[in-house]
Amino acid sequence: PESVVVAVDGTSGSGKSSTCRGVAARLGLRYLDTGAQFRAMTWFMLEHGVDVHDAAAVAARCAEPAIVSGTDPSDPTITVDGADASAAVRSAEVTAAVSPVSTVPEVRKRLLQLQRELIGGGGIVVEGRDIGSVVWPQAEVKVYLSADPAARARRRIAEHAHLGDAASAEAGLRERDRIDSGRATAPLTMADGAVHIDTTDLTLDEVIDLVVGLVEKAG
Ligand code: C5P
């Protein structure tokens, strides 16, 4: 139905973004990339010379940036203070700094508010780490995606050749998973009622079909 909320959580590089955009496009739903919001916050901190490992300094400035998420699955732009930051938030610098910034409770509280405003109308596929557990536990469909770390690293390299070799990509993904799973506030976890899909040996189309099937069954 058009009011459905689909919550998709999982580890870094498990295929959440491609899956969610594909599902939203197939079903005519909106799409929200909450990871991009945490990346936008991180980009703002780096641009303003804030030490991303100083939680108090991050907390003190996290109310400042105006972060606006586009929800069109074919063009999910994100703007920070009016400027398109869609490419900037994917940089290696932001990727390395985003997990520490995301541990700060004030950051999570601020973005939670933005997320709930956008999800409120329903008809949306939302990806992140804590959507089914904290942001929108009442979601009609909850999915947890995972994949073998080596497979995740290979996919990342195939997508972004500039990220270097598979071994360092895998180390980066594992480090983000470690911080994201271990933090005190809203850690990455499999939400109650989530359907676990291991994408290691599945194609993107197969994963999209599985999730579309869950949404159709729920409606
Ligand atoms: O999904 P993506 O890899 O772009 O997310 C970047 C980072 O943002 C994650 O590694 C995590 O630290 C943080 N994040 C989060 N909660 C979410 C989504 C992302 O903490 N709901």
Automatic annotation (TrEMBL):
<feature type="region of interest" description="Disordered">
    <location>
        <begin position="1"/>
        <end position="16"/>
    </location>
</feature>
<feature type="binding site">
    <location>
        <begin position="10"/>
        <end position="18"/>
    </location>
    <ligand>
        <name>ATP</name>
    </ligand>
</feature>
<comment type="similarity">
    <text>Belongs to the cytidylate kinase family. Type 1 subfamily.</text>
</comment>
<dbReference type="Pfam" id="PF02224">
    <property type="entry name" value="Cytidylate_kin"/>
</dbReference>
<keyword id="KW-0963">Cytoplasm</keyword>
<keyword id="KW-0808">Transferase</keyword>
<keyword id="KW-0418">Kinase</keyword>
<dbReference type="InterPro" id="IPR011994">
    <property type="entry name" value="Cytidylate_kinase_dom"/>
</dbReference>
<keyword id="KW-0067">ATP-binding</keyword>
<dbReference type="InterPro" id="IPR003136">
    <property type="entry name" value="Cytidylate_kin"/>
</dbReference>
<keyword id="KW-0547">Nucleotide-binding</keyword>
<dbReference type="GO" id="GO:0016301">
    <property type="term" value="F:kinase activity"/>
</dbReference>
<feature type="domain" description="Cytidylate kinase">
    <location>
        <begin position="6"/>
        <end position="216"/>
    </location>
</feature>
<protein>
    <recommendedName>
        <fullName>Cytidylate kinase</fullName>
        <ecNumber>2.7.4.25</ecNumber>
    </recommendedName>
</protein>
<dbReference type="InterPro" id="IPR027417">
    <property type="entry name" value="P-loop_NTPase"/>
</dbReference>
